[in-house]
Write a structure and sequence with these properties.
The complex is a heterodimer of chains A (122) and B (108).
Chain A lengths: L2 E4 L3 E3 L5 E8 L7 E7 L5 E8 L5 E3 L7 E6 L4 E6 L8 E7 L12 E2 L3 E5 L2
Parallel strand pairs in A: 2-11
Antiparallel strand pairs in A: 1-3, 3-8, 4-5, 4-9, 5-6, 7-8, 9-10, 9-11
Chain B lengths: L3 E4 L2 E4 L5 E7 L8 E6 L6 E5 L3 E2 L7 E6 L2 E6 L9 E6 L11 E5 L1
Parallel strand pairs in B: 2-10
Antiparallel strand pairs in B: 1-3, 3-8, 4-5, 4-9, 5-6, 7-8, 9-10
Classes of the chains: A mainly beta (122), B mainly beta (108).
Chain lengths: 122, 108
């Protein structure tokens, strides 16, 4: 079965960086895109961006351009999201999610990781 | 960017009743690539409806989606206890892929 397992909770100071991993299994990794979504405490969902696991193409929300990098390691079927210059309002649960259909970015969020809480505090 | 506005913010419904949730886009959603998710406290979102009206695998028939262009609706025909949750719409036709702010369905 399809599984996405994310790395554990992180506590970071303002200005630092965080790198969250999303290890996948149960499907052909390179055939599906991965998106990243975050959710601040008590708030709604915010789309951060998407990455093709096949060729590394990315599509970032403008809000995060210059601060976020999404990468993959095809040998371990793992996706990564790095966010730099952290601020207190980056405190959130960060989710990875797989596209529904292979080679089709138009339906995202079919399978989700369990979420990773990133806390930014001095 | 396309802004999705969901209404109402909170919907109070009794079990067994019908719930109708709205998602309105600031401009037409390309290809009607409108997705609905359900999220329960402490859990990741769950895909319910994609392409405005197609149920995802394993989603009960009481969930249905409709609409096109800028106006979309999620209907839950007879609310079961496990349906009380927050529901989000998302458009994937245009980048950035934006979410609505959510509708909380609570027990009346």
């Amino acid at each position: 079965q399809v599984q996405l397992v994310q790395s554990g909770a992180e506590v970071k100071k303002p200005g630092a960086s965080v790198k969250v991993s999303c290890k996948t299994s149960g499907y052909t990794f390179v055939s599906y895109g991965i998106s990243w979504v975050r959710q601040a405490p008590g708030q709604g969902l915010e789309w951060m961006g998407w990455m093709s696991a096949y060729n590394g193409n990315t599509n970032y929300a403008q809000k995060f351009q210059g601060r976020v990098t999404m990468t993959t390691n095809t040998s371990t079927s793992t996706a990564y999201m790095e966010l730099r210059s952290l601020r207190s309002d980056d405190t959130a649960v960060y989710y990875c999610a797989r596209d529904l259909k292979a080679w089709n970015t138009l339906i995202q969020g079919a399978y989700w990781g369990q979420g990773t809480l990133v806390t930014v505090s001095s | 960017e396309i802004v999705l506005t969901q209404s109402p913010g909170t919907l109070s419904v009794s079990p067994g009743e019908r719930a109708t949730l709205s998602c309105r886009a600031s401009q037409s959603v390309s290809g009607n690539y409108l997705t609905w998710f359900q999220q329960k406290p402490g859990q990741a979102p769950r895909l319910l409806i994609f392409g405005a009206s197609s149920r995802a695998t394993g989603i009960p028939e009481r969930f249905s989606g409709s609409g096109s262009g800028t106006d979309f609706t999620l209907t839950i025909s007879k609310l079961e206890p496990e349906d009380f949750a927050v529901y989000y719409c998302q458009q994937c036709g245009t980048s950035p892929r934006t979410f609505g702010q959510g509708t909380k369905v609570e027990i009346k």
